[in-house]
């Protein structure tokens, strides 16, 4: 299976910084890379990405993604961005249920499931994030937490679940420099794979990616695990050299 290396810029960037970063990425992206590359940029910059991809052909192979999508199709939801709007900008991916949205914006499992439904209905692949807090890990609740989070999305989406990407992002590893060890991550990925297997015959070809302080130094070890099929990268996706090194590690 081709690994997915997806950058999540979070709320970072500016027109000038993006132009420099995307130019450097375009110059360094390996032709015929072993990995599929995606970038989830802030919504206001989707159009800029498309304009730059028209100039830098290397960027045309990069899947454009959003960091969130509305749970609603359209209408009076001030500030929200719908899946059909993301589709207008050529988005291939949308992150849903990132822990920062669960934590700071009160997103429940049901809301995350509805967001995944909206994305799928518009031909956009949701990258469904699950992950436990440090407190939950220490209480031995990791498997229960991630299974509950994924179950909501499986339940709401039926057979379409085979079209999602799952991202395991332990909350304690995000932006902290603490990475789950390759073994810790693999254990959780195997549990998620088994849960998907119970829901769909397609589970073995589904991508389950890891996120949380992934960097040039630890990527190869994580990506070598049998159930880790890529990465969702925050901080290191903001530096071209680091992101390119992670892409290079996916072989
Ligand atoms: P960091 O790579 O900065 O830890 O962020 C991970 C993440 O949250 C990606 O969605």
Any overview of this molecule?
It is a single chain. The chain is of the alpha/beta class and 251 residues long. The protein has a single domain, classed as Aldolase class I (TIM Barrel, Alpha-Beta Barrel), CATH 3.20.20.70. Helix content is 41%, strand content 15%. The chain has ten helices and eight strands. It has an eight-stranded parallel barrel with strand order 1-2-3-4-5-6-7-8, surrounded by five helices. Helix 9 links the parallel strand 7 and strand 8. Helix 1 runs parallel beside helix 10, helix 5 (109-121) packs across helix 7 (142-157) and helix 7 runs parallel beside helix 8 (182-199). The longest helix has 18 residues, at 182-199. Bound molecules: 1,3-dihydroxyacetonephosphate. 1,3-dihydroxyacetonephosphate (13P) binds at residues 8, 98, 169, 174-175, 211-214, 232-236.
Annotated CATH architecture: Alpha-Beta Barrel
User: What is the number of helices?
Assistant: 10
Beta fraction: 15-25%
Which topology does CATH recognise? TIM Barrel
Please give the number of β-strands: 8
- Biggest pleated sheet: 8 strands, parallel, barrel
The CATH class is Alpha Beta
Unique bound compounds: 1,3-dihydroxyacetonephosphate
CATH-level-4 superfamily name: Aldolase class I
What is the string of helix and strand elements?
EHEHEHEHHEHHEHEHEH
User: Helix proportion of residues, in percent?
Assistant: 40-55%
* Count of domain modules: 1
Widest sheet, order of strands: 1-2-3-4-5-6-7-8
Q: Provide the structure class.
A: alpha/beta
Output the keywords:
251 residues; alpha/beta; 8-stranded parallel beta barrel; globular; binds 1,3-dihydroxyacetonephosphate
């Amino acid at each position: 299976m081709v690994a997915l290396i997806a950058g999540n810029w979070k709320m970072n960037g500016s027109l000038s910084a993006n132009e420099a970063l995307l130019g450097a990425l375009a110059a360094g992206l390996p032709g015929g890379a072993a990995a599929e590359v995606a970038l989830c940029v802030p919504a206001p910059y989707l159009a800029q990405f498309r304009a730059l991809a028209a100039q830098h052909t290397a960027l045309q192979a990069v899947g454009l993604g959003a960091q969130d999508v509305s749970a609603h199709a359209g209408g009076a939801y001030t500030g929200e961005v719908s899946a059909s709007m993301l589709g207008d900008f050529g988005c291939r991916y949308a992150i849903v249920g990132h822990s920062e949205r669960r934590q700071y914006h009160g997103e429940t499992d049901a809301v995350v499931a509805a967001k995944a439904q909206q994305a799928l209905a518009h031909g956009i692949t949701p990258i469904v994030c699950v992950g436990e807090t440090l407190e939950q890990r220490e209480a031995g609740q990791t498997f229960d937490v991630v299974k509950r989070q994924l179950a909501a999305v499986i339940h709401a989406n039926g057979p379409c679940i085979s079209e999602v990407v799952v991202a395991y992002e332990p909350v304690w590893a995000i932006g902290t420099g603490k990475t789950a060890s390759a073994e810790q991550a693999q254990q959780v990925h195997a549990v998620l794979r088994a849960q998907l297997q119970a829901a769909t015959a397609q589970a073995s070809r589904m991508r389950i990616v890891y996120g949380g302080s992934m960097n040039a130094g630890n990527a190869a070890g994580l990506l070598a695990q049998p159930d880790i099929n890529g990465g969702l990268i925050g901080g290191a996706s903001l530096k071209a050299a680091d992101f390119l090194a992670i892409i290079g590690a996916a072989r």
